[in-house]
What does this fold into?
Amino acid sequence: MTIQEVLLLAAISILLGILSRKIHRINLLMAASIALMYWLQPDTGLRYLGFWLPSITLVLITLSWVLVTSPEMRKMGETLRSLFLIFGVSFLISFLKFLDPDQVLGFVNIPRFVCSLTFLIAGISLVFLFSLLQKGSAAGLWVGFSIIIMIFVILKTPALAVTASRVWRLATGHSLQLANAEELVWLGYSYIAFRILHTIRDKQAGRLPELRLNEYVAYLVFYPSFVAGPIARVVQILPDLREIRTSLSEDLLEGSQRIFIGLFKKFVLADSLALFALSSQNVTQPNFPLGGWILLYAFSLQIYFDFSGYTDIAIGLARYLNFKLPENFNRPYLKPNLTQFWSNWHMTLTNWFRAYFFNPISRYLRKKKTPAIFILFITQVSTMVLVGLWHGITINFVIWGLWHGLGLLFQNRWSDWAKKHLPPPSEKGYQKIRNAVGVFLTFHYVTLGWIWFVLPSPETSWEFLALLFGGRL
Amino acid sequence: MMDRTKFPRLLFKTFLFVMIISLVLVPLAGDSIGKVSLYNWLIPGRERLPFSDTPELAYNLSLFNLNAMFASHQISDEGCQREMYRVIILGDSSTWGTLLRPEETLAGQLNQLDLIASDGKAIHFYNLGYPTMSLAKDLLLLDKAQKFKPDMIVWFFTLESFPADKQLTSPLVENNPESVANAFEKYDLNPNTYGVDQLTISYWDRTLFKQRRNYADILRLQFYGVMWGITGIDQHYPKESKLAARDLTNNETFHSWQEGEMDASNLALEILSAGKLAAGSAPIIFINEPILISQGSNSDIRYNFYYPRWAYDSYREIVRQYTAEEEMFYLDLWNLVPEEEFTNTAIHTTPIGVRLLADELSPYVIAHISP
It folds into this structure.
């Protein structure tokens, strides 16, 4: 997002924050979020794809609502009204093809009118019929779960993304030779997928509260956290969605402060650091090891300020709308060990993996009487590898996940050993030194791990690592 | 619950704070903010003035704050000022070194020759070339460079820098109207002649609202300096670049002038005299830089893409006469570099071409530098 887009979103949020206190809060926020989902979707360069990707998102979301709600919750009249509103927004956007032919408003790739009309009718009919037919089968939930994962895998695997791009090009008459993985930019899919999977798993576990269609859609496409999180759970959002709990002036003040901090982090600190942060372009260019370290430190700080800046902006925008989104970062680089780092870095993501992968796998292995060390090894390493794969299905992200998984395992063993063999830190000064050493080591371990995160291939990453310690590229 | 009046009060204070900074403090600070620099302190000074159209690849950018430009240059490094003779080289992109690495430019190659003056002091060259063709731009840089007290000036130029209507077209000149006007006044040049009096700057132009790009560029120059320090890269080098045309059109006009229409009054010769005045007691060598002499089609009409033969021949004669009358030391090196040593334009040469120039120039520098 550009700074202009953020400021525009802030203005829209203030307006919506005022309006939603007075009229149809849930429907208003849902409709605005859907419209902004189309607006934020970048032009992929492929004909109409920029319109159809958010449209497919709407279909996936509405179908998954049918899966996670009980039939009693799906009242015919209310469901139809919500469906008309949801698909109606998309249909209204298609009118911009005539009203805004120069795309001044920023909505791109709008297809022919007949296509969007067909989508309106087909979308409503499909979801409505599905809602009549679906009686809450367990198999349906697993099918939905698998489809969401399958799309995710296609998008995140470069070879599969190229194939998908070829298919789209074939269907729309584009040159197949120009197909590439980067043009399949489905904005927000990662986060939407996490939220849908969370509702499916909570439904399976019997923990999901009953939700109306408009509440479910408003939660999933909630625009402040649509692009970069945080990944709030539905129980964290629902109370704010249903009820206004703080005054407007309080929301404005706290939201503005948070947005200001976010803008500073993202557009001043992160964007400045990006000018000399490690990248695939500059990896081979340092003339001496210290230069390599400077690039790496810059990247380490850049990714933190970039990501946490966006989180601050999201939290601030949400605050204008009287929502309190969960925090995502809590000084992660100042934590004395890797476990604490991961409890304070992208917290909503790690909490998600803890709740839906780490804990269930641990429980399963414990039931199987697996030795504790193996449980630890399997759960830590597989969780971190999955976190890596969430960023992209490449060897380097696997290595990055392994780096952290093994690091967590080692740190866990070390902590156990230290508790038994080292004297407890009785003096304050001694405790401080231990803490400082821990912060130093943790920061450098995480920072070295970014090499695999930012560089495209293992060979380049190893060579860069060698350069840091005096080897030549 | 928060006091309801707190938010409007905070908004008002913030607004007031921003207005004071934007409308009062920034205009008061003027260009001096550019003097604050990380170069020559935390990061090494650049070997040429900052310039680039592709900052993200070149780790360099074009900006117009002269203080910031000079502060980023190694000439501002106070640590190496008096132990050696300091020679500044002015000129266009051929002096700056388009497609050349810093050590391959004329200044870079002259420094590699380790020239020693007759009194045993080393001679160090500073590249103050800048990629636009305008004598007014060169004079502006020379004027700014005077604070470094150069021991000698070498000024390269070509015909394209001389037409009166070209003098203000350099973005560096356009964006520094006050400095240009000051230089014109200081060196007895008539501001009306080139339209310098038309360049004005309002109070609004000095506020943060109009200066924000300038400030952002100064900041970006510092950050790109880190990359310059780490990599030694200050220019994007494309893997392939198109060679300057050898086959030429039969167009015989130059700046809308037909054969016989060029005389001394068309050319900004007095800016050379202003340069001599600016140099003060430091010797100054004026040099007509080498150009591509094409052997391709229509080469009987034109020397290259820039120049019809009649125009260039007239220019050489005019400058020769003028420099002789004004008692300037002048070298005409127009045909020093063979055709095959030119790269993407009729004035840019390969490192070998630059080496020829360095070898030709160095005895004159040693002979003229003042002990």
Summary: Chain A has a mean pLDDT of 90. Residues 248-320 of chain A form one domain.
